[in-house]
Amino acid sequence: MEWLSDNGPVETATDTRDFGRSLGLLVCTTPACSPEGNGMAEAFVKTFKRDYVYVNELPSAPHVLAQLPAWFDDYNRGHPHRGLKMMSPREFRIANSQA
Asked: Cβ distance 78 to 3 under 8 Å?
């Protein structure tokens, strides 16, 4: 699974990249001067916050961090996406690999 972010100083910091890897994510950045790629990253953050963060009681940052692996798994395996014809990314990949 990839973690896509822009090339800002926080996103490219060693600690941030190491944190992403510790969650088992492939840390990627959008190409420089790529508004399309940055738009994808921003859309993901908006969707993720709306569907996972804001609907859960989050008493502390460690609590949020502990939830991330399960949320990422659900987002990729079970959560329907409008842009993928209401399939999860996993379902979409399976459907398109058989085509």
From this structure: no
Report how far apart the first and last C-alpha atoms of the chain are (Å, whole number). 22
6: containing domain: 2-97
**14-54 pLDDT per residue, tens:** 998 898 899 888 988 877 777 776 777 788 889 889 999 89
| Count of structural domains, the chain | 1
Q: Which residues of 16-36 are buried (b: 16+ CB within 10 A; e: fewer)?
A: bbeebeeeebebebbeeeeee
Residue 94 CA to residue 99 CA, distance in Å, equals 9
Work out the pLDDT band at 8, boundaries 50, 70, 90: confident
* Cβ contacts of 48-56, under 8 Å, gap ≥ 24: 48/75, 51/75, 51/79
pTM for the predicted model, two decimal places = 0.61
